[in-house]
Amino acid sequence: MNIWIEIICYVTAGLVTGISAGLLGIGGGLIIVPFLVYFLPLLKFPDVYVMHIAIATSLAVIVFTSFSSAYSHYRKHAINWNTVRKMVIGCIVGALIGSQIADVLPGTILKSIFGVFVFVMAYRLFTQHEMHGDGRKLPGRVGLAIASIIISTACTLLGTGGGSILVPYFNFYNVPMRNAVATSAACGFPIALAGAIGLYLAGTDETVFIPHMAGYIYLPAFIAVAIPSVLCAPLGAKLAHSIPTLLLKRIFASVLIFIGIDMLRSVTMHLIHTF
Question: What is the DSSP code (8-state) at residue 213?
Fold first, then answer.
């Protein structure tokens, strides 16, 4: 494939990621991971590593997008720093655990996990479903630490920064949406950073024969997706005030359903051919 066509594809993915994050409030992993899963095989990447590379590269991009988002929320004084302090160590530990689990899991299992996850996200986008507890308050330090380890482990396996799981978690404990999104962004940065570092270290020996790799992180895609995604997120936030986002969310949910079906179909076909 021509290098310029490859770069254009990455930049386009970055533009869509940034605008969608600001416009629809969705995590970048929901776009970056499927994009790379379908695109990397066109570059003759070994199938056995495609899902690992997609997850790691997505997390590397989210390091920058989550930092940008968290900084914006910080300027608006929306982050609950007390909650972040109680969760940050658990976020790092869970992300490192998740990176080691992702390293040993076959790509078919990782793809199955992601396929199920996009169905859940499609349901949330279709229904605008938010869980709210009856008078529940956030757990104490130990409870938040345990929750952060579990959530960040799952996020690393999915290649997401945490918002898709942390925001519903905070909603369940009646945290106002503005603060839930902001605090989730602040927690998403250490999750993505620790997850990306873990997968960089885990993949150092595995992908040494593939050009332009840093562990499981594919550097051309990382750079070309990260820059436009960070730059375009504010544009998406501005468009959210002038575009009917409910319709867009349902369209995107429909796309997610097709992605989930196709991923699970490919896993099924692989298993049939294997056995």
Answer: E
Cα(19)–Cα(72) distance, integer angstroms = 15
Integer Cα distance of 217 and 207 in angstroms: 9
Contact present, 195 and 155 (Cβ < 8 Å): yes
* Interatomic CA distance for residues 14 and 222, integer angstroms: 9
pLDDT in the model for residue 131? 59
How many Å is the Cα radius of gyration of the chain? 18
Average pLDDT over residues 161-176: 85
Percent of the chain predicted with pLDDT > 90: 52
CB 163 within 8 Å of CB 27: yes
- Main-chain dihedrals φ then ψ at residue 232, nearest 5 degrees: -95, -10
The per-residue pLDDT for 48 is: 92
CA 149-150-152 angle, 5° bins? 65
Say yes or no to pLDDT of 129 above 70.
no
Q: What is the mean pLDDT of residues 219-237?
A: 88
- Strands (E) located in 57-189: none
Kindly state the tokens that stand for 4.
């310029």
Average pLDDT over residues 76-93: 94
How much is the pTM?
Answer: 0.90
**Which of 159, 120, 163, 153 has its CA nearest to residue 259?**
120
CA-to-CA distance for 171 and 14, rounded, in angstroms? 28
- The residue with tokens 């002038």 is 242
CA 89, 168, 162, 45 torsion-angle sign: positive
| DSSP states along 23-45 | HH---THHHHHHHHHHHGGGGT-
Task: Report whether pLDDT(171) > 70.
Answer: yes
